[in-house]
Amino acid sequence: MLKIALIGATGSIGRQTLAVIDRHPDEFCLYSAVSRRGGDGFVSLAKKYRPRFCALADGESGEKLRGEMPADVPFYYGKEEALRALDGCDIAVIAASGFAGLSYSLAAAKRGLPIALANKETLVCGGELFMRTAKENAVSLRPVDSEHSALWQALGFSLDKPFKKLIITASGGPFYGKSRDELKNVTAADALKHPTWNMGAKITIDSATLLNKGFEVIEAHHLYNAPYEKIQAIVHPESVIHSMAELEDGAVIAQMGVPSMELPIQLALTYPKRLSCCESPDFVKLASLRFLPLEEEKFPCFSLALRAGKAGDNYPCALNGAGEIAVHAFLRGEIGFLQIADCLSFVLDRTKKERADSYEALCETDGAARMAAKEYISALQGA
Length: 383
Prior knowledge:
alpha/beta; Rossmann fold; 7-stranded parallel beta sheet; 11 strands; globular
């Protein structure tokens, strides 16, 4: 039975990982669970699965929750304690969201653990550092992000197989086809209505701005050692083809499936085996699959991500830090939808190029970018 360390146990990917465990209880067990702040969902998880180790990264939240946790489940809190969840497991599912997930990914890689990687910031912010650490420790790295799981499958479960081009698909989000004028007054509620995927709030907004798709291009650059000119993003509204690999002879291999994260999560856990999971698409009902150009002029966050990725070093980390602040400000109604991109541009323009060769350097960049983003938002509110 595979002993799973689940980092980010109460988030969207964490909950879907638990659904996979429930589907195949003879294959998997929840060995350890980590959340940032926990809450009722974390207590329920501990009572149901009885992990060998539970932890909250936020110490204050841990103090509040400890009286509610089952007495027979070891419970700890604080960032350093939370990292101990990786000890004794067979595989680490890094499902924590945001920059905070990077520390767990690096810790798992240093331990040489197989990693089911769902935290995109690991590659966006620390791609060079993480991939080097994973290689040094012979890590079995298994992408969970649906697009990168698709490429992994299309390339024969390889991260280093040769290819001519990688084609990453995007649903287009809720606003594809709208004009800039129409986007000026969209609300958070509008942006959270994703047409095909059910995800957490932050990634849903990033999908609406197409920042998420830009992040996925950066991820592909690191995962598959792909030059940026060999990565193409296109809009595919049906979200059935999750990505495609074009090979040297002109053949194109696509991975297809219903829009569910449970399939890539489960595959990362069972690789190289496949077990029952989701229904397949009904191609007769689908009737057609559309492919459309990505409208960069209407969605500048995508172009900003490419700019940061190509600049390299600490620029993608700065972009991500600014994005975390800007998106949460938009969700609170403090800035408009189009001002998310303005905030990111403001921060990138003020970022000093530094090597991203240590976790400490990345933390410094992340902190500076967040401060600059808050400065931009405060200036808007004071205007």
